[in-house]
Amino acid sequence: MKHAGIIRKIQVTEKGTAMAAQNAFLLEVAPEANKLEIRAAVEEQFGVHVLAVRTQNYVGKPCMTRTRRHTSRPNWKRAIVTVRAGERIEAV
Q: Which end of the chain is more exposed for a tag (fewer CB within 10 A), N or C?
């Protein structure tokens, strides 16, 4: 998988800003990406040294459309990336 398609966005949440004090950042990533690919993509895109990557898979919630069809939101994956002390991942 290409590094450009792995990282979808940086998640700016209350939990994420609290974790940034411990040099850990929340990223939404492609569901088919593994930890090694996420690590390489973050190091290449943001120019930081990654110490650890933890991932969480989320199942899309069921919802109804205007025509009462039962569908679901897409599944997605979040990565918690810990970087070396003094380095940051900046949201653009």
A: C
Virtual torsion, Cα 3, 35, 1, 45, nearest 10 deg: 0
* Domain around 71: 3-83
User: Is residue 89 domain-resident?
Assistant: no
Per-residue pLDDT of 30-53, as tens digits, reads 999 999 999 999 999 999 999 999
Identify whether 48 is part of a domain: yes
Instruction: For residues 29 and 80, give the distance between their C-alpha atoms in angstroms, rounded to a whole number.
Output: 10
pTM of the entire predicted model: 0.87
Q: How many whole angstroms separate alpha carbon 49 and alpha carbon 36?
A: 13
Torsion region of 47: left, alpha or beta (phi above 0 gives left; psi -120 to 50 gives alpha)? left
